[in-house]
Amino acid sequence: MKEIYFAGGCFWGVEHFFKGVDGVAEATPGYANGNTENPSYQEVYTDTTGFAETVRVRYKPERVSLALLTRLFFTVTDPLTLNRQGHDEGTRYRSGVFYADREDRPVIEAVFREVEARLGVPLVTELGPLKNFYPAEEYHQNYLDKNPEGYCHLPLKTFRYLRLFQDIGLFLGQEPDSVARMANTSALIAERMRFFWTGFYRVDGDQLVLGPFQGPPACQRIGYGKGVCGTAWKERRTLVVPDVEEFPGHIACSSLSKSEIVVPVYGKDGNVKAVLDIDSTELACFDTTDAAWLELIAEYI
Ligand code: SME
Predict the structure, then answer these.
(1) Crossing angle for the helix pair 156-172 and 178-193, to the nearest 10 degrees
(2) 208, 222 in Cβ contact below 8 A?
(3) Which pLDDT value is given to residue 96?
């Protein structure tokens, strides 16, 4: 068993999230890296103790890697807001990854660099050794299980995506055929998330060609740099389009589609080999939470 400490804002939601991760044996909310001993919640709440609300995650490294845990941490943490996560403000809500084992640092650091490269700006999330940790009072343990209507700064879809992500991994297993992988991935996303259209376009020369999908019939070919899909391919980045009418060159397969997200799928050689395209009948259906999870899912292909 190994352990790692994640400060990602209010520990109620962060604890609940990590308890749902396969391979995690224990997630314990508490206070880390402060200047006193045995602090109470009220003391930490004054924001003068230096403690950060932190979750101690004990995990089985043969079932879940530290790299994946750190990547999952970034799906629930905004690494660009200093001393704030969601509506919660104060140094006690600063974000950080604290390690108990120095040898963990390079693995965590590599994920930090990856996230930084994607965002294009330096992260404010701390990375450093654990100095101290005190489990929080009993009423904070399993808070959201005890209080299902209780406050959670994480959007509900985070928890649905976590299950979806883990189930896709189990379903696809070691299947070598990428069309089979795309087929089950689109089916699972559609079944769980109920989007209007979920599917893949595969790179075929200088065009994208329709791949496995769920939803109404769609256009079969899209040129490089054309539409949202061809642009995501060209720019090699996820595109979140809150209103398709506002996207120059958007290709309308259905007038019912109002918002869209397109995520590139990379091959082993680093080239884009497909895109994952999801449409919704609602405006502004997708945000950075969807982008983070769909990017993780795209890596399964
Ligand atoms: N709207 C996409 C075309 C594909 S359909 O959404 C399924 C685009 O502009 O690339």
Answers:
(1) 150
(2) yes
(3) 98
Pocket around ligand 1: residues whose beta carbon is below 6 Å from it? Answer: 197, 218-219, 222, 227-229, 250-251, 253, 257, 260, 277, 279
Mean pLDDT by 10 residues, the chain (301 residues): 98 98 98 98 97 98 98 96 95 98 98 94 98 97 95 95 98 97 98 97 98 97 98 97 97 95 97 98 96 96 93
Can you tell me the distance from the alpha carbon of 145 to that of 288, in angstroms, rounded to the nearest whole number?
A: 26
- Distance, in Å, from the CA atom of 13 to the CA atom of 19, rounded to the nearest integer, reads 10
How far apart, in Å, do the first and last CA atoms of the chain sit?
30
Q: Label residues 237-269 b or e (16+ Cβ within 10 Å = b).
A: ebbbbbebeebeebbebeeebbbbbbbbbeeee
Q: What is the DSSP string of 203-231?
A: EETTEEEEEEEESS---SEEETT-HHHHH
Q: Which neighbouring-strand residues pair with 135? A: 30
pTM of the complete model:
0.94
Positions annotated as catalytic residues are: 10
**Closest-lying ligand 1 atom to the alpha carbon of residue 253:** 5
Amino acid (1-letter code) at residue 54: T
- Which atom of ligand 1 is the closest one to the Cα of 252? 1
Q: How far apart are CA 191 and CA 164, in angstroms?
A: 10
- Contact indicator for 273, 210 with CB cutoff of 8 Å: no
Angle (CA) 213-202-115 rounded to 5° is 95
Give residue 49's pLDDT.
97
**Tell me, what's the pLDDT at 66?**
98
